[in-house]
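hiii so um. not sure if this is the right channel but i have a protein structure encoded as tokens and i wanna go backwards to a sequence. like what aa goes where. can anyone help
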């Protein structure tokens, strides 16, 4: 009887929403992409009903804006806004855009623009947390802003405040919100990683004993046997830090190189995979909780995944990512190589509705099935060469594909009929 009444109530509510024009409820993960690599920082969208093939010229472009200045950061999408970093004159800036048409609602200068021969401007993605926006620039300026209008709540510079030095290709980290903590990696003495109170910017902890310079990767957080763990690449190792107090629980050097560790770690089933390029490769670690700490043990190491900065997605037990310039599929548990393909050339990727959305740095956008049975490309099209590589990761949110290419952001309709 109770189940019958519940069914009737749900039916009435649905009917009411249809007759009043109110939208049926949808999950955050399906409509929004609130931070670097999505809601769970894994590059996966839970959307369904997307196109499985595009027209020859690509999916329909809904709008395109070209006022973002320089930079390589991807977008965060939340509610009726899109947040993206760029430049204006000599300033590093974050923009709040209208999700409907891409027009600028507000913009806030955060500090001086960083200049580097491989491309000027910011490399990070803003992080949305409720009504607040957290942004880190290429020069270490960290800001907590009001998402509605870009006004400042608090600011600091993580290099100056924690004695860090800017890596050669400039800071590329996107801040992580974990509970009441905001996690960033200054790379200072006894401050390789720090946790700040997200409300006021005050220090909660610093990693005593971890003084590695920052790399170009962004942190993730996961529960391992009841121990909340922050994981990231430093310049010297993949590391695991206890979220409650910053205790360094393990350091894994096999997957790190001496030039640039960029790829966000991939976590699943109490295991984490670290990968880097420059002739190195990747290693899968088994993580176990012992006495309130997490220990790691290498399961395997492979040269078949030398991911530079295009990211890796894990789908149904298989990893997909560019090993240098070759798209590669590996079995997560064993490291077994399933297939390789030149695809769109070296690039980045994200996943949605059974498909890999691929962006080659030479300005080719591709769509391929995410299957371990072989590479099956369904579509591709070209975007404009604006004089720099297309390094910003593609984003899929609310039936739209967002491609950021230097000063330009384009929104494509990839929702099936």
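sure thing!! here u go:
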């Amino acid at each position: 009887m109770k189940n019958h009444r519940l069914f009737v109530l749900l039916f009435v509510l649905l009917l009411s929403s249809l007759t009043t024009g109110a939208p049926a409820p949808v999950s955050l993960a399906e409509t929004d992409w609130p931070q670097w690599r999505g809601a769970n920082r894994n590059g996966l969208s839970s959307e369904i009903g997307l196109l499985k093939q595009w027209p020859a010229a690509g999916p329909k472009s809904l709008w395109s804006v070209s006022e973002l200045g320089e930079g390589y950061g991807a977008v965060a999408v939340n509610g009726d806004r899109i947040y993206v970093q760029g430049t204006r004159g000599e300033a590093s800036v974050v923009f709040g855009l209208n999700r409907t048409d891409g027009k600028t609602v507000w913009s806030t200068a955060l500090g001086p623009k960083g200049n580097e021969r491989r491309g000027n401007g910011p490399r990070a993605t803003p992080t949305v947390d409720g009504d607040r926006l957290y942004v880190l620039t290429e020069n270490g300026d960290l800001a907590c802003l009001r998402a509605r209008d870009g006004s400042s709540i608090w600011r600091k510079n993580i290099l100056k405040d924690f004695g860090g030095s800017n890596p050669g290709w400039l800071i590329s980290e996107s801040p992580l919100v974990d509970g009441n903590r905001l996690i960033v990696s200054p790379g200072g003495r006894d401050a390789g990683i720090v946790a700040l109170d997200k409300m006021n910017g005050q220090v909660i902890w610093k990693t005593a004993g971890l003084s590695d310079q920052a790399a170009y990767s962004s942190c993730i957080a996961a529960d391992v046997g009841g121990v909340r763990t922050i994981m990231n690449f430093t310049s010297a190792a993949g590391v695991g830090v206890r979220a409650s107090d910053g205790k360094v629980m393990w350091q894994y050097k096999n997957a790190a190189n001496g030039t640039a560790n960029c790829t966000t770690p991939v976590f699943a089933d109490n295991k984490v995979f670290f990968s880097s390029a420059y002739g190195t490769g990747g290693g899968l670690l088994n993580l176990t909780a012992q006495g309130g700490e997490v220990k790691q043990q290498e399961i395997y190491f492979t040269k078949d995944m030398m991911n530079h900065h295009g990211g890796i997605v894990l789908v149904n037990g298989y990893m997909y990512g560019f090993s240098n310039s070759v798209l590669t599929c590996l079995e997560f548990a064993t490291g077994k190589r399933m297939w390789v393909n030149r695809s769109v050339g070296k690039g980045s990727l994200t996943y949605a509705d059974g498909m890999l959305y691929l962006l080659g740095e030479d300005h080719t956008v591709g769509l391929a099935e995410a299957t371990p049975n072989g590479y099956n490309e369904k579509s591709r099209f070209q975007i404009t060469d604006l004089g720099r590589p297309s390094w910003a990761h593609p984003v899929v949110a609310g039936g739209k594909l967002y491609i950021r290419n230097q000063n330009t952001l384009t929104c494509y309709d990839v929702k099936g009929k």
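oh and The longest helix spans residues 2-20.
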